[in-house]
Structure formats: structure tokens, C-alpha cells
Amino acid sequence: MKLISRKSITATAAIAVLGGLSIAAAPTQAATPTHSSATGHTGAAVHTTLTDRELAKLPLTNRHLTKHERANLAVVLRDYYVAEGKTLDADAFEDSFAKDGVFNDMVPGVAYRGEALGDVPRYMVGLFPDVHRELKRITVNDDVVSIELSIQGTFEGPLQSPAGTVKPNGARVDVPTADFWYLHDGKVEKFDCFVGYSTMYAQMGVNFDWASAVDKH
């Protein structure tokens, strides 16, 4: 199975995915941010589709994508790129959504719209400044892009909890995640994200007190 690893964030991305995630070029070929006329924000050069060569480097379940599907996948991959710790562009992430687009953090049941959309990648980078998403399996079906991935990073930012602030401890996280993107006319209408929070908090050193919950009964 092909994975998109941290070392493969390179110049291929700027060519392949709307200035987004790179796939398997040499690690020495660093992507150079440029001004994107499509978004009005700083980002890599804008492209609207993926070539056969670029698709071959992705962990796709089906490589026979239509032009429309390639364009949708390019939008999604670019969103991952601008949400990376080293290439954060929260405004570009927000701009990829339709006017009424929504980001659903499915496990806690929280929805983000409008300007709050940019808060999602900002929050993750605040917790994990080196946050990276390793894409393991990608399925594209018309306007739906489904991705199995891992969210990776180092816990270096404070975590606000109902009990107070959890201080960073430098712990590494590798969190199983499933993302479902729904697009229309090149814009994200809905993004449903399922994050393995139990695993993430455990790796951060946060252990829920089950005993106190049992004692209440």
C-alpha cells in the first residue's frame, strides 16, 4: 500500500494538487509557495486537475478517474496541504468551501461554518505545530472523496479541557482518522471528519477517569 509520508511533501505537490500535497518526488525538491490568483492568498501554484503520472503515485482504490473526479481530488489534496504545520494557510482552507459549506467534527458533534472553518487547521497547528496527515487509502466517486488517514504530530501546544489546561509534553501522536468530502462545482459543500480522539488523548497522556464515573452511580 502506498502512503503519502512526511518526507514526500515536495515540489510535485505544487504541480499536482492545486499547490497541495506532494506524492513521491525527491525530498530535496522543496515546494516553493507562490501567490495563488484563485484564492487571493499565499499558496502554491493553482492547477485544476491531476495527470496520470501524478495519480499513479497516490494510494487510490480506483485509478480510472474522470476529469471531474481528478479536479475534485485536487481540491481535497490542496486542503490537506494548507492544513499542514509547515504550510498552514487557514484562509485558503476556508476559501475552498462553498458559501454555506460545513466542516463536521463528527465524534464530538461540532460543526464549523464561515470564518470558523479556518479555526479548524489553526487549532490543530496550535496543538501540534508539526501536524501532518498521512494518506493511506483514497476513494473518489464523482463528487465524494473518501480518505483513510493518520493525523501525526508532536504535542507542543496547550490543550484546554473542562478540568483546566493540559500542558504540552512533547508526546507524539499517530491518530486513525476517516474523512469524507462532498463537493459541488469545485467547492467543498460538506466535510465529515471522524478522528480517533480516544487514541489521540491517550497518546497525549490524557487518561479519562472511568473510576470517578462509576462511583457516581
From TrEMBL:
List the signal peptide residues.
Answer: 1-30
Q: Which domain of life is it from?
A: Bacteria
Keyword check for Signal? yes
Give the record's keywords alphabetically. Signal
Keyword Cytoplasm assigned to the entry: answer is no
Its name, as the record gives it, is Nuclear transport factor 2 family protein
Q: Which organism is it from?
A: Streptomyces cylindrosporus
